Amino acid sequence: xxxxxSVKDLQKIYGEDQPSQVYALDGVTLEINKGEFTSxxxxxxxxxxxxxxxxxxxxxxxxxxxxxxxxNLTTLSDSEMSDFRRDHIGxxxxxxxxxxxxxxxxxxxxxxxxxxxxxxxRRLRVEEVLAEVRLEGMENRFPNQLSGGQQQRVAVARAMAxxxxxxxxxxxxANLDSTTGTELVEMMKRLNKMYETTFVFSTHDPIIMxxxxxxxxxKDGKVADEIWQTG
Length: 231
Hints:
The protein is of the alpha/beta class. It has helices at residues 48-56, 78-88, 104-114, 119-132, 148-161, 178-195, 206-211; strands spanning 3-14, 22-33, 37-41, 63-68, 71-72, 89-92, 166-170, 198-202, 214-219, 222-228. It is built from seven helices and ten strands. The longest helix has 18 residues, at 178-195.
């Protein structure tokens, strides 16, 4: 399998110039292969969210390097990082983060609009991804007209719409009941297998952890263990 994403000797230090420094990440080295379905797990304060934010370029490491498809993200300016993130990384958030004044269609096509895709290209892709997440016919609804599970399916569709190299999901089932959460994770696993889309989760949820093919266990900002599962 080909390595699509890697981090080398990552450190994230808060209060670097203060007497009491906090090492949110301390020497993390990790590779992610194309098509993985991986969960970053660990107790609160272990560095999960910090690592996911650095993966995405939303935060920068104090030391170390981050590579996606051979591009060193730590060398990019903020505007270059924003463009690179738009074209290569999809996001799924705990709180859905849909834009309330936009319809389902408009929420999903928004990234493609920023990419300069034509209206025809955008509408065809929205139809495809809505079918993939089984929300056909809901393109003209607004987020407040959907259940929590449906909103998170729209978030998955939005993340996949631009065909990113990797999708980062931060506690995507946290606001869902167990049945809806299970359905959502099974859907993402189906998309992972169908398209070899790489998924990396930050989670406490056993529903995700049990279905991941790989668990990266963080403790005190370090990789404490890596567990491969049948998934």
